[in-house]
Amino acid sequence: MNPPNLLLKPFRFFSGTWARRGLLGGKWYYIEMFILGLLLVAVPYFSINHLVAAVGHTFWGPELPLDRLIPVLPWMVIPYASLYILNPLPIISHPRNDRGRMELLLTLQGISTLTIMSCFFFIFFPAEIDMRDQIPSDIMESSGFIASTFKSLHLADKPWNAWPSLHISQSLVLVMALTRWLKRDWSELWWSKPALSVLWIDWTLLAISILTTKQHYLWDLGTGLLMGLFWWWMLEAGFKRLDSMTEDEISAEFTIDV
Length: 258
Fold this sequence. Notes:
Elements: H1 15-19, H2 27-55, H3 65-69, H4 77-81, H5 83-86, H6 89-93, H7 98-124, H8 137-141, H9 145-156, H10 166-184, H11 192-212, H12 218-243, H13 247-251
Helix pairs in contact: 2-7, 7-10, 7-12, 10-11, 10-12
């Protein structure tokens, strides 16, 4: 028996969004995708983050001795912050047909359910990431771009929501989806291969950066990677289902049972 797959088909919740995809010459669909991303991803994450920080209770501390031996690399706050560019990037880079639009919808569904499931761990197994004291004071007291990025990050994202790391799981799912489109739909364009290289270099640096900016523990990285791989497995199955469908069948996804 196959395990249940949250991402095999789009939720009925999105049927209205799909029906409105032609409004404003198709532009409204992307606006709605962005708004839904804020409501289903950003709002749950930051709400839970600040709530758990206010409670201040740690269920279990996953810190290992090795975590404090990993050096602080202040410049890596830049790849760390690149997640906030990766999140809306599918809206820009998906294929411009109903197949691509449905894949975009499934990707949003994947990132949303991934975030909500991770919030379950953040609420019931809270852990404070108590390592920001390792960041040199001269970095935090300066007024440069790196310091400003750290300060903004620390203000918005409290040192909780430790594991599984959403920075790892979300970014992995997003990069895998973007890789699929670059290889399948944009491969004939000159910039596709450089873009693919930049994408994976950024993801590699991002994965390392959660440790070198003292935002996460090694345990968070490992559990985030496992969560991301599992969510990509589900999303890829949804994509493969779409591969077996015609464009007309995809367009009528919410009106027929395929």
